Structure formats: structure tokens, C-alpha cells
Task: structure prediction
Amino acid sequence: MVKLMDEIKLLDLTRQYEIIKDEVIPVVLEIMESQRFVNGPVLDKFEQQYAEFCGTKYAVGCSSGTDALIMSLIALNIGCGDEVITTPFTFFATAEAVIRMGGTPVFVDIDEKTFNIDTTKIEAAITEKTKAIIPVHLFGQCSNMTEINRIAKKYNLKVIEDAAQAVAAEWDGQRAGSMGDLGCFSFFPAKNLGAYGDGGMVTTNDQELYEKMLRTRQHGIDMKNPYHYDHIGGNFRLDALQAGILSVKLRYIEWWSRQRNENAQIYNSRLNKNLSGLYDGPLPPYRTPEAYHVYNQYVIRSKKRDTLKRKLGIAKIGCNIYYPHPIHTQDCIAALGYKEGDFPVTEKACKEVLALPIYPELRDEEIYRVVNTLEGR
Result:
């Protein structure tokens, strides 16, 4: 009888839960007993822990990574007529947040090795309307923040780090979220630090921005004068249950990051040796020397991407494409005037990238099976 192969999921959070559930359950029960679900001491504690973890003075919990971006734009008074430079190779929320605030995203192509914004092309995109740069630390590797901050200082621009995929990532020894004016994080369950639902965080060293975001997440309310509103905000709060769960998970994040790196090294050694002929571009994923990569995704690239994806699917191995379509070619933002061919490096990456399983609890033999399948064994 032929033995059916077990499925290897792209992400298996049930394994993580088995490790931490004895710590998570009491925290959840304590919050249930307290009946304090909105704001309160649990959220305060997590925000303090997270700010310390990132190396910033302040952290403001919020309802999602998307809302973290919106809160940051509100804090910086970015709106109608303002331009924000960012990348077309990212999750749609990066550009969407700018558009929702009435601003205009101005795209700059990516670096072919890192998939992050090509810093050599930023200055050419700056106009008198430019107010900020949003670099995206894609797949868990920081953008070149040294160069981005140099450009921002030269042109008096603000920097919002989109660190949605980069909890614990570093650039030249500094944590993601600590290098710009603001840092935005997502705690979507699939992230390397994931909640049991939606959640997000904004970090900053600026007290004025911090205090404005505290108001912003509660409709712009004046904290000292209830039902008086200083400005337009929204309902962007991070609830206490998620904060409590994330507080437990934060204890593990550095260990999980090391495990992801160890898994990446196993892939790297096998793929470099056996699959170089299949690929166009860097394989394994390129890691900049200044960066500490946390591999929120382990993304390979190949001219034969779709063939490899079918092979993995037949073998019951999870994989996914991040991202199959560039933002600048999306019909819903056609009014911005971009067209196919405007950002060739991004468009090429969208045709070649493929994310493989990389989560911390992945077993060595499962990684070997992924590679063997790619090799056709």
C-alpha cells in the first residue's frame, strides 16, 4: 500500500500554540475575569514592553498594520496634495493608506537583490509636494535606512517605516521601527509576531507624535476633556486580549527569529548547491551585510516559478506568491497614471518570487523534503 505523504503547511500555527498555550491561557482567563477589554493595564504593559524591545521611547497599540500606517499619516498631517514615496512591491495597504488620507503614493522601483526600495532612485522622485518616504522592510529584511534617512534629512522629509513583516529585524544594529520618525507593525496572525486576530503598533521617539496618536486611536478625543475632539481620528484601538497574548509571544520572538535563520541556512546550503541553474537572480534570498533578516517569508525566485509551485502543490507542500501583481498595475488606482513597464524590476519579481515554509517549528526533514521536491526527487 502506498503511504500518503503528510502535508507540509506554509505556516502551521498549531505547533506554536502547543508550545505557548500554558502561558497564554491564564493571561486570557485573567482578562476575562477582569472584564477590562479596552485599553487598561494589560495594553499599557505591552506597549511599554514593545517600545523597550524596539529601542524607542513610545509605542501605541492599534487595530491593524493598516491602521498603524493611517495613524502615522494623520500624526504627520499628510493629506490632500501631499506626495509620499514608497514601493510598488508590497502589500496593498502601504499605498492604500496614503490614498485614503487623500495623499498620492509616488512609486520607486525595487532593488533586485533585496526586493526593498531602490534608494538610488528615490531622489529623482522627490518634488515640492513630497512630504514623506515609506520604506517597506519586505519579507523581514530592513531597507537601507542609512541612505533613506540621509535623503530624508537632505530634503526635510519624514520617514515612516513599514515594518509589518519585520518584528526584530535590524539595520546596522538598530531595530526596525526605531530608525524613522514612526514605525508601523502588523500583528496579523501569519506575521512572525502574530496576534489571535488583527492588531498593530506604531513606535516613535517623538513625544508630540506619540500623544497625538493616543488621541487619534480614539477618534481624536482630548484625553483630559472627554467628548471634546482635537482632530479627526478613528476607532483604532488594540484590545486587551490581543495585547495580553502578544505580551506572552514577545518573550519568544528572538528565539523564533533564530530558528527562522537556522531554517534559512538549511535551505541556503541545499539550494545554492543544487538549484542554481533554475534561478535568475540571487538564490537563496539575498541578505544585506548590514541587516539582520528575520525571514518573515523565505522567498526564492525562478523563471520556472509556476512549474515549481505546481510541483510543491502536488507534493502537498504549502507555498505562496508574495506578490503576483505589482501595485502600480492595479485597476483601482489607474487614476494615478502608472502603466505596465514603469517599474521593470518589480514586474519581473512578481513573475518569479515564491515563498517556502520557514516557520520556527518546521522540522529539518521537512525542509529536506521541500528541497527534494524542487529538485524533482
